[in-house]
Design brief:
heterotrimer, A alpha/beta (147), B alpha/beta (665), C mainly alpha (129), A: 147 residues, alpha/beta, B: FAD/NAD(P)-binding domain, 5 domains, five-stranded parallel β-sheet, 34 strands, 25% strand, globular
Chain lengths: 147, 665, 129
Amino acid sequence: MSIEAKHKFKPKIVAFCCNWCSYAGADLAGSSRLGYPADVKIIRVPCSCRVNPMFILRAFEKGADGVILCGCHPGDCHYSTGNYYARRRMTLLFSMLDFLGVENGRTRVEWVSAAEGVKFSTTMNEFVEKVASLGENVRLGDLRCRN
Amino acid sequence: MSRVQRIGVFVCHCGSNIAATVDVAKVAEMALLEPGVVHAEEYQYMCSEAGQAKIAEAVKDKGLTGIVVCSCSPRMHETTFRNAAERAGLNPFMVEIANIREHCSWIHKDKTEATKKAVILARAAIAKVNLNAPLKEGESRVTKRALVIGGGIAGIQTALDIAEAGYPVDIVEKTPSIGGRMSQLDKTFPTLDCSACILTPKMVEASAHENIRIHTYSEVEQVSGFVGDFTVDIRKKARSVNMEKCTGCGVCSEKCPAKRNASEFNRGLNNRSAIYTPFAQAIPNVPVIDRENCIKFKTGKCGICAKVCQAGAVDYEQKDEIITEKYGAIVAATGFDTIKLDDFDEYAYSQSKDVITSLELERVMNAAGPTGGHLERLSDGKEPKNIVFIQCVGSRDVTCRGKGYCSKICCMYTAKHAMLIRDKYPDVNVAVFYIDVRTPGKNFDEFYRRAAEEYGVNYVKGQVGKVAPQPDGSLLVQGVDLLDNKQIRTKADMVVLATAIEPEAGVRKIATMLTASIDNNNFLTEAHPKLRPVESPTAGVFLSGVCQGPKDIPETVAQAGAAAVKAIGLLAKDKLLTNPCTAKADELLCNGCSACENVCPYGAITYESREVNDHGIREVRRIAAVNNALCQGCGACTVTCPSGAMDLQGFSNRQIIAEVDAICR
Amino acid sequence: MSYGKSQAEQIREISGVNPHKCMKCGKCSASCPSFNEMDIKPHQFVSYVLNDDAEALVNSKSLWKCLSCFACIERCPRDVKPGKLIDGARQTVVRQRGADYLMPEEIPEHLDPKLPQQLLVSAFRRYRR
């Protein structure tokens, strides 16, 4: 069920989805008409390992309130090892971000397969709810970009 | 290198799929305000010929250098629009898609919200295409040989079709003979053909075909490479029998003293010897020694089979052999098995020998089976007078006990069993307890009605709650008749369970090796459930038979042919166009550290000495070189690179950052 | 507890059952030991609740013939739990009659050494709400 109506604060969420599993899972959520808030915008990448920590930092800098990375389940990566690199990188990055004041709840890694439309929409609903409860992200923000 | 673009934005209505929840005119209007955009329009169906013509027209009239299409998922029509752009004279990689259907109009109910989001997604795509550079697809070779994993009817049919087209095919089958489940059946619906009679000619044809090589008692061990150029390691397990010398006389099995091994072919209903061929029509007709149960291998004593073998074919020293082959296409045809009934104790399957699964009944009724084709109770050999069939055992069951899907074949095969029994033994009473009778194929409903009307099979709408073995050896069956609203307690001599089917064990391992998608029920996923049912999303891997979803023999044969055609389409090409979105190292930034080389899953990166002109300084440096034929464009190297020299064409750092900026704006 | 809700709604809420999940297979009725004593059969419980006909259900003999053996719940392939529906219906009746309070202090006088432990636990489960 969409929780769009329940929130006054609408967080900006950037979702990086790998082309092979999670983007297809998102498409399946769409075909199955499983709603999640419009605050989530998806950027397609070939693999979760393409996501450079710089992109995530940039997102927070430019005003994102939450960033989520979606990839294939461990063992199922289309490029065989990509998601393992992504997992390690993000563990380190999110722990660093938490230390810097960008709380753990604002970042997330989720493995979604192409058959898991329901999981995708449930994950997005939960994530938006969590980020909304944390409020607006004020850390790392580049004030020059705020309007 | 950035260049000044002239971008055209095309917003699709997709009928009402997008237009109902997204104000497409507004999206086009807002797109026109973005930097680089010189043209924006909306249309009902951009993917149609008229829609594509609009793109061509705009490219010509406005001198467009790049286009953005706001429509359905790129997984649907990216290729369509790339082709349209190419026909209009534009480089096909100057096209970006904003997914405003699956990721927007279909999931958001509020039109204002959805439109705002669609505008943002369009902005991101525009920001990206502003930084696109024309790309050219590379070429890779195609090994003109196919691999079929699984030697059942699906694998055999696919192999025959590929071989007939003139391409060499290898079949790898893990059991000692090809034939699969169909070889275990007695008669097939709806024609009541003898299964072996229609299967064995195909088996023979496959073994005799000059283009087909069969590896039985073999398994795929490792797969590397990609479409057109797979390298596969196949483990040929040691049969302990020399295939060249064996004449198939069968004396070894006869004389083998180790006779107490459950016969897999007969589903454990009778025994086989340690050296055995699974069934009489096995291909190849060469026995195999089950080393775990062979007296010679367990204790060192015996060796009778070697002594009696006139051809001297028994070879206890034989080792597993690993062969490596190259293939252009791989077809998965791994088949199915019935589920375990450990969680279905209410049916007393483990308590009584007279409660059997339908596959076990096939073996009982088959003339080459454990009872010689005589229908008898497995407990005491007496002829049953009352038989109850229970449908949907483990199928359509969403609890943790069973499978949520319908196994598709059971309603038909139960009608077949019931009909055959009533035909051969007219004094036997047969009742079928069902939830629904599903008979969707050609002549299928007529077939089931014959069973009910002509052969007097008693169809009872309602399930069975319990089967209780009685002291006198009979079975008490308690079920319900929903239409009469009565609970039925009936005495049966035999109960047959139409057990759910699931993909063959070991399919997960194969799916991982092929990096082929697999779903939660272990069925291999197809690229698109309606339009691409025989291809895996992984290029070069095709699906044939029940491994993709429950189906009967006519459908399996049809799908096998379809998979073969797809494989042939691939093998017929002399070269494949490779993904141009490959990695590229900036030679001025690369410091030769090898970090990228180590993370590449394809070994696509090597280092070379190259002369570099760095702002006037000429020197030879160690620079990363990417092999465009091997690079699959995952991007792992780009993030690992400490100097930021490695970037991915088509998904460059600047492009992704531009998308992030556009979204967060 | 809201009396504004229909009784069927109440039953649904108390039992936590989604009656739409039923595929009318009859496994529950086939497993029920009290089938022959009942006027409304287990496989019909769901239809009555779906059609909002809780009245017929609560006035039936079935309500009290159900043994709470949970065989129907164990074996239902769709996780519909018809036994819980009947339990829920019983609850609404008991609550209506006002006899839904069993205070802990009252228990010792009701205790009978022959009373099975399970009955006490069962009673607590039902009457504590």
